[in-house]
Structures are given as structure tokens and as C-alpha cells.
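Q: My labmate handed me this sequence with no annotations at all. I'd like to see what the chain might look like in three dimensions before we decide whether it's worth expressing. Could you predict it?
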Amino acid sequence: MKPKSNKIQIASFDDTTVVGINSALADYKLAWNINNKLLLDLVRYDDLIFEGAPFSFFYYTAGENYNVYNLVSLVNKDKLLYPFTPRLDYLFLIQNTLSAERQMRIMRSLREIDGIGHAFVLEKDKTLRQVLETIAGCEQQMMDKKKKLNDINAVRQKMQEQEAQFAALRAQS
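A: Here is what I predict for the chain of 173 residues:
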């Protein structure tokens, strides 16, 4: 009998569509426009921190077994998360498989947004894989933080702490 292997599985990103976007729009305006065009609900979460600089991070999931969407800024003032040629300001990631028709509709909708210079699907190479791993790590941290906030025991503890603070304030009055 073969012993079990304890190898960590690293995501291949084969089912992730990566769209590079060049746009002078502010991150929240671009997210708003994408939400309107694609009927999504991208929400800004904690920034992705890379080499000490924050880069905006938006997230939306339609639920289990559906697509997950991320919008990530690649530019923060004069710092770049990763340099791409041609210059890209944002990456729009769509996780889980898309049909060819759905991908064409998304691309057409993105290109209709005023303020987007260009948007195109990126080929997955070694550099892009590094970017995707960085973003996946940020997404995992965000999900862990969200899970912790929603943990019922954490909520109970927080309520008890708030009640104790209110009781102390009443006692001082």
C-alpha cells in the first residue's frame, strides 16, 4: 500500500479569466461602472498590501459554484503592483469557468464603459501567475477575516465587551 502524500495543492488558475484594464477612472468609479454593466455587486475590502503599499481590492461572489469576481488596482500613486506592457491600471479576475459567449459579453460590456482605454484577456505566464498568487493570498486573508467576524462566539464576546463598557459608563454617570 502506498503511503499518503502530504503535499500542498497550489491553485493552477486554469479556470481564472484575467482581464487587463487601462483606465484613468478612480477605483470606486470603475467598480461602480462594472457593477452597473455586469449586474454585479463588487465591494471594496481591505487593501492588498504589497511591498508596503496598499492597492485597492474589490470582491464579489454569486455564491458557491458560481463565478467569483475581483477588481484589483495595480497602481498606487507612483508604485506599481506589477508592471505590464502595455500599461495596465487594473486586473479584473473572474474565477471559475466562463463560456466563450459569456466572456465575449463581459469583454464587450467592459469596453463600453466610458473611461476605459482598453480591456483585454491576458495570457497566463509566469509573471501573471505570481500576481494571481499574491491576489489569491489577499482574498484568502479577507475570507478568513470575514469568517472570524461572523463567528458566533466572536459576536457573543464582542457583545459582552460592549455591555461591560456601557455598564461602566452608566456607573460613572
